[in-house]
Specification:
Oligomer: heterodimer
Radius of gyration of chain A: 22 Å
Distance between the termini of chain A: 31 Å
CATH topology of chain A: ABC transporter involved in vitamin B12 uptake, BtuC
Strand order of the largest sheet of chain B: 1-2
Number of strands of chain A: 4
Shape of chain A: globular
Order of helices and strands of chain A: HHHHHHHEHEEHHHHEHHH
Strand order of the largest sheet of chain A: 1-4
Number of helices of chain A: 15
CATH architecture of chain A: Orthogonal Bundle
Helix content of chain A: over 70%
Largest sheet of chain B: 2 strands, antiparallel
Number of strands of chain B: 4
Strand content of chain A: under 5%
Structural class of chain A: mainly alpha
Largest interface: A-B, 44 and 47 residues
Helix content of chain B: over 70%
Distance between the termini of chain B: 29 Å
Chain lengths: 343, 345
C-alpha cells in the first residue's frame, strides 16, 4: 500500500473525508438525474428540513462520545414533550411565546439531570435508563393532551416563518440555530477542557479518572447537554409542525444515532467529529430529497438505503481500526529493531 | 428458615416481589381479577389467561434476548424481524378473499421462521465474524428491517382470509388454551432443556464474562455468538407468526413496534445484567409477565394506552434502581449504621 494512502486511512479524520465524499457523490447523482436539483435552495432546504434532527444529533453525539455504553434514547420523546408543552403553554395560559420557549428548555435540563443522575450515581446502563425516560416523556406528553394541539399564537407563527435571506435563497430560523449549535459544539469539543474531558472519558474511563478528571461530573453534564439539545430541537421541530402531538419525533433517536454513526462517531466512545455528524444528517436528507424528486419510489426506500450505508460505514470503521492497529504494531517493531541496532 | 433466607437472597426474589405487588394491587382494586371462566366454545377466558396470552410473544422474544444479552451483546432488531416474519407468512398465504392459500400453510410457517433465522444469520455474521459492536450491528437491521418488510408486501397491508392462519394467534378449535401460550410454553421448555441439559448455557455465560479467556479455554466463541443471534432471530420469527396471526394481516409499520425495547426490559427486570455473564431464564419469564400484568392492570383501572408509558417508566426505573449494586451498598450501610446505633443505645 502506498505510504500516502496508508497515512490517509490512519488519519483521525478519515471517516469524515469519506462521509464528505459520499455526500458530494449523492448530491451529484441527484443533480445529474433530475432537473432543478442542483440549486442552492435545494441545498439549503437540507438544513431547513432537518434542523431539529441536526440539533438532536449533536446532543446524542456528546452522549456517544462520553463512552461507557453512552447513548440517549429519550431525545425523540423529549422533542415531542417540548412541542406539546409549548402548544399547551401558549394556548391555555397567558405566558408569552418567548417565556414559553425559555421555560421548555428546562424540560430538557430536567430530563438530562434524571438521566445523568441514574447513570452516574446508581451506575445503571445508559441504554436502560434513557429507555425509561423515553417512555416517561411519551407518557407525560399524552397526559397533557391525547389529541394534536395546534399552536396559533401570531407572534410564534411569525417567528416560525422568519428567515435569513441569502441572495435569492433563504435559510429558516431553525436552520440558523442548528448551524450555530453545530459550530458551538465543535468549538466546545475541540478547544475547551470540558470537551477534551469528554473524549478522554470516552477513550479510557480508568485513565481519565487517574488523570484527575471528574468523570461523573463530566458525564452528568453530557446528558444535560443532550437534554437541552433535544428541547432546543423540539422548539425547531415545533416551528415546522406548529402543533404538539404525542407521535411527534417518533423514531428520531434511531435516526440521530444512525446519522452520528454515518458521520464517523464510534459507538465505543472517544472517536467522533461534530461536522461529520452534520454531514451524516444531510446524507439522510439528500436520500429523502432524491426520492421525492424521483416521485415513484416510496419513502421506506430511505430506510433501506440508510441501512446499507450504515452497514458500509461500520464495516469500513472496523477495517480502519484494524489498519491502525497494524500500523501501531509495525511502528513498535520498527522502534524495537532500531533500539537493538543502537546497542 | 434457611430455605427462606436462601430464597430472599436469590436473584429471583425481586422480580417475583414486583409481580406479587402488582397482583396484590389487582386483587384489591380490580373486581374479578382472578376469575377464569369457560366460554361457550370451550375456550378459557379471564384476566390471568389474558395476561399470559398477551405476554406470549414477549416471552418468546425475551428468551432469545436473554441469551444475546448474556453474551454481552444486544439485539435491537427483533421488532423489525417480527415485521419481516409476519410479512413473509402473509405474502406466502396471499390475500385471496375466498380463503384459499397460495402456498400450503406449513410452507408459509417455515418461510416465516426461515426469514427470522436469515435475519439472525445476518446479525450473527456482523457480530461474530466482523467483530462489530452488537448494538450498531443490529441497528442496521432495525432501520432497514421495516423497509424490507414494506418491500415484501409492496407497501400494502395484506389481509389473510385463510382461516387456519388465525389459529396461531387465537385458539385451535377444541383446545382450551390459546395457541400462543402453548408455543411460548414449548419455547420455554426448549430453552430450559438447552440451558440445563447441554453445555451451551455454560458456554454462553463464559463468553459473556470473558471472551478471550473462553477462547483460550477451548470455547468456540465465534460459534456461540453466531448461535445466540440465530436463536434470537428464530424467536423473533416465531413471535412474528403470532403477531401476524393476531390481526390476520401483515402490517409492516406496526407489527412488533417497540417490542425490542419491551424484550430488553423483560430481561433486565429479570435480573440479567446488560454487561453479560450470569443470566436468569426464570427471571426473564417473570419480567415479561410483569410488564404485561402492568399493562393489563393499567387498562383495568382506566389508564389509556398512550399514557401508560409514563407509569411503566416509573415502575421500571424504580425496579432497576433497587437492583443496582449502588443501592444495595447504600442499603447495607444504612442497616449497619442502624444496628450500630441500636448497640450504642
Amino acid at each position: 500500500m502506498p505510504k500516502f494512502l496508508s497515512d490517509l486511512i490512519a488519519s483521525p479524520r478519515f471517516s469524515f473525508y469519506v462521509t464528505g465524499l459520499l455526500f458530494i457523490i449523492l448530491f451529484g447523482i441527484g443533480s445529474v438525474s433530475f432537473e432543478g436539483f442542483f440549486s442552492p435552495q435545494v441545498f439549503l432546504n437540507l438544513f431547513i428540513d432537518n434542523a431539529a434532527l441536526i440539533i438532536v444529533t449533536v446532543g446524542v453525539t456528546f452522549c456517544i462520545l462520553s463512552g461507557g455504553g453512552g447513548i440517549d434514547l429519550s431525545v425523540g420523546a423529549v422533542v415531542s414533550l417540548t412541542c406539546m408543552s409549548l402548544a399547551y403553554l401558549m394556548r391555555e395560559t397567558s405566558i408569552g411565546p418567548y417565556t414559553s420557549m425559555f421555560l421548555v428548555l428546562f424540560i430538557g435540563v430536567a430530563i438530562g439531570l434524571i438521566n445523568g443522575f441514574f447513570i452516574t450515581f446508581f451506575k445503571l446502563q445508559p441504554f436502560i435508563v434513557t429507555l425509561g425516560t423515553m417512555f416517561l416523556c411519551r407518557g407525560l406528553t399524552a397526559m397533557i393532551s391525547r389529541d394534536s394541539v395546534p399552536i396559533d399564537n401570531a407572534v410564534y407563527g411569525e417567528l416560525a416563518f422568519t428567515s435569513l435571506e441569502i441572495g435569492d435563497c433563504f435559510l429558516s430560523l431553525g436552520a440558523c440555530i442548528a448551524l450555530i449549535v453545530v459550530v458551538i459544539a465543535t468549538i466546545v469539543l475541540r478547544y475547551t477542557s470540558f470537551g477534551r474531558s469528554v473524549y478522554a472519558i470516552g477513550g479510557n474511563e480508568q485513565s481519565a479518572r487517574l488523570m484527575g478528571i471528574r468523570v461523573d461530573r463530566v458525564r452528568l453534564l453530557v446528558y444535560v447537554i443532550s437534554g437541552v439539545c433535544s428541547a432546543l430541537g423540539g422548539i425547531a421541530y415545533s416551528w415546522i409542525m406548529l402543533s404538539g402531538y404525542t407521535l411527534h419525533g417518533l423514531g428520531m433517536e434511531m435516526d440521530a444515532i444512525a446519522s452520528s454513526v454515518i458521520g464517523g462517531t464510534q459507538l465505543m466512545g472517544g472517536v467522533g467529529f461534530i461536522p461529520g455528524t452534520l454531514l451524516g444528517v444531510m446524507i439522510q436528507g439528500t436520500i429523502l430529497t432524491i426520492i421525492s424528486f424521483q416521485g415513484t419510489l416510496s419513502a421506506w426506500w430511505t430506510k433501506i438505503v440508510v441501512g446499507i450505508l450504515l452497514c458500509l460505514f461500520i464495516v469500513m470503521q472496523a477495517l480502519v481500526t484494524e489498519h491502525k492497529n497494524r500500523l501501531m504494531r509495525l511502528n513498535a517493531e520498527g522502534s524495537a529493531k532500531k533500539a537493538k541496532k543502537a546497542k | 428458615m434457611d430455605k427462606l433466607k436462601q430464597f430472599t437472597q436469590s436473584s429471583l426474589m425481586l422480580p417475583l416481589c414486583a409481580l406479587a405487588v402488582l397482583l396484590l394491587f389487582n386483587a384489591i382494586f380490580v373486581d374479578d381479577f382472578f376469575t377464569i371462566s369457560m366460554m361457550e366454545n370451550g375456550n378459557l377466558y379471564g384476566r390471568p389467561i389474558d395476561i399470559l396470552y398477551r405476554a406470549s410473544s414477549l416471552i418468546i422474544l425475551a428468551l432469545g434476548m436473554t441469551f444475546v444479552i448474556a453474551t454481552g451483546g444486544i439485539d435491537i432488531s427483533v421488532g423489525a424481524v417480527v415485521a419481516i416474519s409476519a410479512a413473509t407468512c402473509c405474502l406466502m398465504l396471499g390475500g385471496d378473499i375466498s380463503g384459499v392459500p397460495e402456498h400450503p400453510f406449513i410452507v408459509a410457517i417455515i418461510a416465516a421462521l426461515c426469514a427470522g433465522i436469515i435475519s439472525g444469520i445476518w446479525n450473527g455474521t456482523l457480530v461474530a465474524k466482523f467483530k462489530i459492536q452488537a448494538m450498531v450491528a443490529t441497528l442496521i437491521l432495525m432501520t432497514s428491517g421495516r423497509g424490507i418488510a414494506q418491500l415484501l408486501t409492496d407497501g400494502q397491508i395484506i389481509t389473510v382470509y385463510y382461516t387456519p392462519f388465525s389459529y396461531i394467534g387465537g385458539n385451535i378449535p377444541g383446545v382450551m388454551v390459546p395457541t400462543a401460550m402453548i408455543i411460548a410454553f414449548l419455547m420455554v421448555c426448549l430453552v430450559v432443556f438447552l440451558d440445563r441439559k447441554t453445555s451451551l448455557g455454560l458456554m454462553i455465560q463464559s463468553v459473556g464474562i470473558n471472551p478471550t479467556a473462553s477462547r483460550y479455554a477451548g470455547v468456540k466463541v465465534t460459534a456461540v455468538l453466531f448461535a445466540v443471534y440465530i436463536f434470537s432471530g428464530f424467536c423473533a420469527g416465531t413471535a412474528g407468526l403470532i403477531e401476524g396471526s393476531l390481526i390476520r394481516a401483515a402490517d409492516a409499520n406496526n407489527a412488533g413496534l417497540n417490542m425490542e425495547m419491551d424484550a430488553i426490559l423483560a430481561v433486565t427486570l429479570g435480573g440479567t445484567l446488560m454487561v453479560g455473564g450470569r443470566y436468569y431464564i426464570g427471571g426473564t419469564i417473570i419480567g415479561a409477565i410483569t410488564i404485561q400484568t402492568l399493562t393489563t392492570t393499567m387498562y383495568a383501572v382506566g389508564v389509556s394506552s398512550d399514557r401508560l408509558p409514563a407509569i411503566k417508566a416509573i415502575v421500571i426505573l424504580l425496579i432497576i434502581t433497587i437492583q443496582s449494586e449502588r443501592f444495595k451498598e447504600l442499603y447495607r450501610n444504612w442497616r449497619l449504621k442502624k444496628s450500630k446505633e441500636a448497640a450504642n443505645a
